[in-house]
Amino acid sequence: MNQTKKTLLLVDDDSAHRTMLKAHLGSEGYEIIEAVDGDVAVHLARERHVDLVLLDLKMQRMDGLEALAEIHKHKPELTVIIITAFSSVENAVEAMKQGAFDYVTKPVDSDALSLTVKRALDFKSLQQENSTLKQRLGEKFDLGNLIGSSQPMQELAETLALVAPADATVLITGESGTGKELVAGAVHHNSQRKDAPFIKVNCAALHENLLESELFGHEKGAFTGAAEQRKGRFELADKGTLFLDEIGDMSLTTQAKILRVLQEGEFERLGGAKTIKVDVRMLAATHKNLEQMAEEGSFRQDLFFRLSVVPLHLPPLRERPMDIPALAEHFLKRYCDKNRKDIRSFESEALEALLAYAWPGNIRELENAIERAVILCLEEQILLQHLPVQVRQSYADNSERPFAIRPGLTLKDMEKELILSTLRQTDNNRTRAAEILGITRQTLQNKLKEYGLT
């Protein structure tokens, strides 16, 4: 790794010690700026480009803790490593609480110092890359309520960012409750049609005749009860987007009419003779295997190919367990706000149970479980007893706890714990661990590096 462009600010009032550290770090290709005391370091950090600060705790004019606070007041993103005598480790830990990245003890071990500096710079680089990516995604694509940092969700976000601005038909597949409607909404709201109507139809909820009337509209007297003319969803969606949910439940007759609209952009209302032209982008979703249905003859093959110009698949929640904590926190906040409750977090056993359960109903089932828990909870934490019986039973039956969540863990801590426990389960087989976690092997490697576990 070429370090020549990295600049370190070395702060120590002991000139001999400073000279020794400068010689070692300089030999590794770093550019070194020296400061003889904390007040000088604060000035240099403000005025010069610095990638990392090595800051001694004990100095005469301004000690390390005070200098750390002043440096972060002006440059909160600047990485700082504390240098301390072994007897002052408590102060070094206090410095870490105040934002220092890590500390090294005197007498400084050269190899340990090199490793700590490299780890700090690698972590800073990763933070900058993540920040840049988030900014670019934020500028180009609004994910709305699509939540998750797992590899499948990252890949989905990247694909959506490319697909949404185009005008292609999109087929969204996945089990019930995986969030297909949210994906459709994200496509529309990031498309050129975002200011036009977004119309949704659940094809499974309506009988064939009612569905045709709903989609294409009807003229007065077209059938018993048709007391007046009514526009269908295609007309209402003109210049916008029409989302057909559970399109696999549609009859072959209705499928033929949908195909005509896709190919020619026209149709007639039920009971009408006038051909109506529309400009509609169509999105469709199903939990069924349309390709197999097309082979069996229960779904039109030509319509299947027209719909699946851009296929998007949503993985079930059990294949992306790393997203469960973030989703649970999201739903906790939503239903606390809705029910005017002040529940701060999940008790450790409750979180373990959420992570251990397979969630056959996917995100929808998780959301319902959290809403129920919020309603039942009278404490400041969601407890195991507040979760549905099937979640508690699954937890009780799982005698081998794949991970252990301790009170006070952050979401980052939980992610680290989940990675470590999965590696233990797989005897440190990183390829298998990545598959279980729903991420690529490279992403797992990056996570391990981020947490200093390499």
Characteristics of this structure?
454 residues; alpha/beta; Rossmann fold; Helicase, Ruva Protein, domain 3; five-stranded parallel sheet; 16 strands; 14% strand
Briefly summarize what is shown:
This protein is of the alpha/beta class.
Description:
- It is found in: Cytoplasm.
- Pfam families: AAA_lid_14, HTH_8, Response_reg, Sigma54_activat.
- One of its GO terms (cellular component) is cytoplasm.
- With 454 residues, this protein is of the alpha/beta class.
- It has three domains: 7-133, Rossmann fold (3-Layer(aba) Sandwich), CATH 3.40.50; 151-315, P-loop containing nucleotide triphosphate hydrolases (Rossmann fold), CATH 3.40.50.300; 318-450, Helicase, Ruva Protein, domain 3 (Orthogonal Bundle), CATH 1.10.8.
- 48% of the residues lie in helices and 14% in strands.
- It is built from 19 helices and 16 strands.
- It has helices spanning 15-27, 38-47, 64-74, 89-97, 110-140, 151-163, 180-189, 208-216, 233-236, 252-264, 290-296, 301-307, 324-339, 348-356, 362-376, 389-397, 411-425, 430-437, 441-450, and strands spanning 7-11, 31-35, 52-56, 79-85, 102-106, 170-173, 198-202, 217-218, 230-231, 241-245, 266-268, 275-277, 281-286, 310-313, 345-346, 381-382.
- Strands 2-1-3-4-5 form a five-stranded parallel sheet, sandwiched between helices. A five-stranded parallel sheet has the order 7-10-13-6-14.
- Helix 2 packs parallel to helix 3.
- It is elongated, with a radius of gyration of 29 Å.
- It starts with 6 loop residues before the first strand and ends with a helix.
- The relative contact order is 0.07.
